[in-house]
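Budget justification, computational time. The allocation requested in the original proposal was used primarily to generate structure tokens for proteins on the priority list. As evidence of use, we reproduce two of the resulting records. The first is shown immediately below.
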Amino acid sequence: MKARTKKALLAFHRWSGIAAGLVIVLVGVTGSLLVFEDELDVALNPDLYSAEIQGLRLPLDQITSRTARTYPDWQPAHVTRLDDAPGRTLTVTLRNAGGNERQVFVDPFTAEIVGERSSLSSLALIRRLHGDLTLGGVGENALGLLSLLLMAMFIVGLALWWPGKKRLPGALSVKWDGGSRRVIRDLHNLGGVYMFAFLFLSAVTVPPIVWKLTAPQIGPPAPAAAPPSAPQSAPENAGPPMRAPAGGPPPTIPWQDAADAALEAVPGSWLGFILRPLGPQPFFLIRVFPPGENAVSKQTTVFVNRYTGEIIRLSAPAAPTWASLLSADFAASLHSGAIAGLPGRWVMFIAGVFFPALFATGFLLWWRRRKSRLTSAAARTAADP
């Protein structure tokens, strides 16, 4: 590599890291925490997620009805079950007219409310910081651009480190007896080299997530979502009614009917998430999982007609293709390592921790170099007559 080119690339790598370093550290650390978000949430809030097993689970409509009566100004939007542990509670997310959200944790056997929290919990704040820096769409776009910068920095860093084939064996270990500056430089270089694939993966999966490069297909809703000719009555305990205007479609089917339709379409699965349609949306969005699984890469998404209970579309896990990289769900499973199960999640956890480590060692190299130059300049000034 020519000296001028190397100098330019080094300047890009150094100043990009310094300029964006603190944001990179923030995103890396919060990302590591979110890899094990569910486990952390249960460990920090065990009372919210456990219920005494007694009899059969109640229908979802009784669960949502209880929350609707307890919080009359809020409407049940979706119901989540963290995993298929027998004593796991259900999380009902409520929304009010202002678009605010509240999580209510309900015993699935008695419909008793065991706890609640706002959307501003500590883990929710970590999720916002990692997902959009709490800046909404502006933050998402900033993180998308930051991911492009990171990819360029990783490639440039690898090119700057590359010692050539002959010197490669000796460049793959830290020279602990080479002085503090050499040790710091080796730790910085080799940290990036050995984790390059996973650090690059964490960056390249960001654009599909924040920019939704491919829209999810839900199939043609027009024929499937057409309301039946005979009106159906909504159950008494289904929560706030979603009545259509006179002459319009009939009421939305009960929560449990939609869930049963999805579970029947995917035998042996358990219900992890159900979103009730609000406004003109023609379907329930439901996610089911195989026994013992709750990773995004294992989920099957089922779209159920809100009026008839018929399946509009079923999106099951499929063999990944190059086009899959543009899918937000698939990119998210790569981003978190969930696609490779627990080992993959641990690898991505470690990759997140490497971001602050690389920033710290890189900053130290720059600071020591700057301090040395200032000292030399001061010495030359003092030596001048």
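The second record produced under the same allocation is shown here.
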Amino acid sequence: MINPPVIPWHALKIPWIGANACALWLITSSTTPANQLTRDIIPKYGPTLLQAELQTKTGLSFEQKGVKIGNTYFWAQLAKQDTRFTSAIMWLIVCLCLESLWIGALLIVIYRCHNQHTYLLQENEKRYQDLATLGADLFWELDKDLKISYLSGNFHYLQCEGLEGQALGQALKTISNLEANWEQLNERLLQHQPLENFTLRLHTSNTTLRIFKLNAHPLFDEHHVFQGYRGLQREITEEYNLTQTIAYQAAYDPLTGLINRNEFDTRLRQAIQRVRDRGIQSVLGYLDLDQFKIVNDTAGHLIGDQLLTELAQLLQQNIRSSDSLGRLGGDEFGLLLEGCSIEQGQKLSQHLVDKIKDYQFVWRGRQFQVGVSIGLVPILGDASNVIDLLSRADLACYKAKDLGRGRVYLADQNDTELDRQHLELVHIANIPQAIEENRFYLMEQPIISLLNDSYQHVEILLRLTDENGNIVQPNLFIPMAERYGMIGLIDRWVVKTVLTNYHHYYPEANTIVAINLSGSSLSDERFTEFVTQLLQQSAMPAERLCFEITETTTISQLDQALKFINTLKKLGIRFALDDFGSGVSSFGYLRRLPVDYLKIDGDLIRNIDEEEYIRTIVDMVNQVAIMMGMKTIAEFAENDAILERLRTLNIDYAQGYGISKPRPLPSISA
């Protein structure tokens, strides 16, 4: 009889094992060595168990052999044959009887944790799928070949199907009316770089533009091998439109559509730097309309606004696309000519003068003709800053007016006369020195009640003398102070002087004092603190103080103005909206401004007795004021006829030369 071969212990394999044991011990029937199995189950007694069976003669029947350890019983079933053998096993089934309570409990806990973990994974996956489907964002994944392997169900707006399996860049390019920098997208994907706010633009059938942003990060395994991308696409159309609107409002004049002063200053500053860096020839022009005030005084600001809009369009149509035309304020414009020689700048400017001269503006059958004076200065490499250049161009414009209007004046480097005038204006704008030398003084103009108000009202007016004692007109030094950034100092001086000496000016303390404020102070948070501290230190009642702010200044910085007004009104301070009715958007903004008084624009009041439509406008302003709980003040009440007309319209207050000219306030000892 031939003995079966001896099989080494370490080479003995388990040919079959029950499914429960497989699930419990995470093993397979075909590869698990017996010694490994028993070592995993019970290292100390496993070999003894199997060796005992190997030494037993077996037949065709099965018998059990086992070892009991504590409360746990290990057993084995061997299929036995009638023949004798030394070490041959046909089938071996190893099972584990769990009688020990602690082992059973442990397995139950493990089983439950496994089920709970599986449940949570399934719930998280379902939650992710629901959010990906219901959310506004698009989730997507790419495989290692940069092909789309997953898309959330929120792709219907692109009107395309079957993108899975396509390369992302190629798939998106197949979508009609979808624009992007495809070359940049493919480059970043091939280099396995993150995508950060990559922009897609979709032109829809109704001509609207939708904006999307792609963000994604590459995926790598533990060996740093690239596996694909996981990304998000989000629509930002609403945010984009809001940003564009805010940016437009911050950079463009709402009346003319031209760039505003801030944007023009920014472009001029950049042009100066380009001249320094690259030597690009450039020219700056300062434009001031001639005879425009006649239109305003005759037809009113509404018609004047219409004329300004038409002239702005005419100027814009007659310059190069690379030129910048901006409204600097009122009827003044700035013209920036980059890549332009002096000769070309003069030729273009003269062309603009001729176009404006030939333009005819008709209102109510009356024909108006306006002109434009232009001051030109070259932008040189040694140009100091925006303020100096604009100031010099402004002076050149005034020089053009002095020479007869409707012409171009070039201020070159050797213009000594212009240099002298420039120095004089700079000296006038030296506000700190004027304050130190007590060259500012205050006057008042009464505001009378037309309806028997018991309070007295006055408006504080500012005057300045030069070093020789000559009076400097406010329309000269106020704009210069604003241009040189010194108007805030003037506001502080006026407010401090009035609040500190209020009882000296008005011993009975029953006079409401109105002080004009600039836009600079409205936007200066420190000025709010300055006023608050002064009120606490002075004996002036807050309800006797009224700040006048112009309509145009307030509208141009509405949010800052509202914050300023609301903060100080809590202290009892009153507010008046000056020059109301001078703009085209007056009533649209009025509902947002919590002011106490509306000062009706003087250009309307001075013609109220002659023009029926003006009386209608004034009456409408008064009715709106009544509805909103505001009082009305009519400026430029220059005679008794105007005053009588104002009374018939139930205007609350009036101010003007027909009542009283400005008069000096009592002097104050230094």
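A brief technical remark on that second record: Residues 101-134 form the longest helix (34 residues).
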